[in-house]
């Protein structure tokens, strides 16, 4: 056959599409047409996934409608507490709007194909419905089994509801075989179509009753509280818990703490499948995320704190930040020694190489006459924690009073390191040779609970000769060691020439209001030759932060603003256009499907999401009509039967987002209910039922019957039933067998991967056998 021709008889597949082709393609080569239709099919399937995400946003708003109820709570004012709970029952919402929303393309494709074919049965729509059911049951279940973190499991919580829907998933397809092969072979009568469709509301009612019977009164109260967490504002207690774990570290701003609190609120709240669908769609299109974004390093540090793996109280929150500082705040040197050694420590992350600078600065001592000025760059190598600087002292053999100069450290802000508190050292040039007298600089200290680490300075006067070990201890007063501060006994070492150092006492910030509390810090003894001064005891008083409550209120307010901005349905129409035109980092020329911004936001006219629901459904209908035409013509051009096209290309296009959604739900949710809907019977009862009722009414009104070619369709249904029974049997086995972790998802490594491989091979076998039957390699 020629690649290009004007012969009308060679104009292939022009009559296969409902609305396509819209131009004369008889002069196009077959290869060019295949390429165009394949690209168009992929593009439209991508587009329908976007509009379905918008559609699911309206469904999430509709099913998230709340009401305020009063429950008994003796601790609350008046003995009652108000809670916001969802109006929609979660089971009813999942079986109706959520399932229909995620399967709208398949349902409309089946209906539009029948209407477009003059109410004759088509192949792509029914095959896509059966193919989607098989893909969801086998492939998505396989992925969900493998995805939970190693060592974790996800089991079905609402087991009665899941058992019911699983049973209906088998019964629905057995009913199809009875209709097509037994009761009225190759014919669907009106009563059969009505029975098929009416099974949908019957399923919903029975599932609702099972749900209510399963949960009971106490579980219902728990669900009410979960609903409050999922849809209400974050509480002060929740923010206080986050800030307690963060330790109110000075490196953490209020905005960062609020962002982490918002992330924790989202993580700990149960989410619907609609929420995950919207989230995945926005991830695909570069839209606004439903979970706040934060610096990964900050989030990692917070996770380490929660796991107890961060370093002790008072040290830096970020173990990845190196800290450079002097070992002591001051030191002294005798003029006749002619040299002083200054030690520099590196704390925090000791692994990277750090470059830092130092320079000397004049005080009463002057460079050139009293010491030799220095300015240089030094490097901490990997895992190196201490270095020293030698500074030459000028001995002029003349009597002078004690003089001081300074050494200053600096680091490049781009290096990732930071300076500690002791980044400037005072050096005193003296003329005596005594080990010195040691005492506190102050008899008492007043510190805030949020200080982290209290540094109590100890001074060394009247000499700095030799190394001196100073012993100290703390004594509880109203403050208790281990609860309010980390006390005990310890030693403070003064090296030769060091003049002032500090005792570090970690202060515990429990984020709770308390009265002022005190403890005592005492100097016990020093090395031989050294002396203790008069101020041997210092009383430390820990005061509660006056601004704690105000700080919590500010962070709570910021957190709620973050959550409100990200909550589904809160965007305005203008926000939608801005988001549509700013994908890919603001690349307007690369923006795709901007037309979907015409769909009114769920908050439009306070309609509760219904206006958005209807408009988005219209867009899906138009796009589905195009997809049906593209799929039929593309399959015809490559000599692929419509039934195989529906089972493969169209099914994969409509289900790939669901795969990503279920994968994320299997990782993010505590239970398996969200990622294993089990509502495959809805595809038959509503999807096929609606189109069958429509066609049956049409043909009955003409005194004829609705004819359905059941050959390939019945075979795929039968194969699905066999695969479904095997899949559900595996899930039951997993729930009760230790080898699989006694849960539907996750569990031991060997069990989870064997289960996933088995289901994936089962799906491949299903597609292979159905394709062979369609091409008459299997006689059925």
UniProtKB/TrEMBL annotation:
Cell location: Cell membrane
Per the record, what are the reactions this protein catalyses? Ca(2+)(in) + 3 Na(+)(out) = Ca(2+)(out) + 3 Na(+)(in)
The record gives the membrane topology as: Multi-pass membrane protein
Every Calx-beta domain range: 313-410, 425-524
Its chief place of residence is membrane
Keywords annotated in UniProt: Antiport, Calcium, Calcium transport, Calmodulin-binding, Cell membrane, Glycoprotein, Ion transport, Membrane, Metal-binding, Repeat, Signal, Sodium, Sodium transport, Transmembrane, Transmembrane helix, Transport
Per its UniProt record, what Gene3D superfamilies does this chain match? 2.60.40.2030, NCX, central ion-binding region
Annotated membrane-spanning segments are 34-57, 130-151, 163-184, 190-210, 610-631, 682-701, 713-733, 753-775
InterPro entries given for it?
CaCA, CalX-like_sf, Calx_beta, Na_Ca_Ex, Na_Ca_Ex_C-exten, NaCa_Exmemb, NCX_ion-bd_dom_sf
| Assigned protein family | Belongs to the Ca(2+):cation antiporter (CaCA) (TC 2.A.19) family. SLC8 subfamily.
Q: What is this protein called?
A: Sodium/calcium exchanger 3-like
Instruction: Name the species this protein comes from.
Output: Saccoglossus kowalevskii (Acorn worm)
- Its gene name is LOC100371693
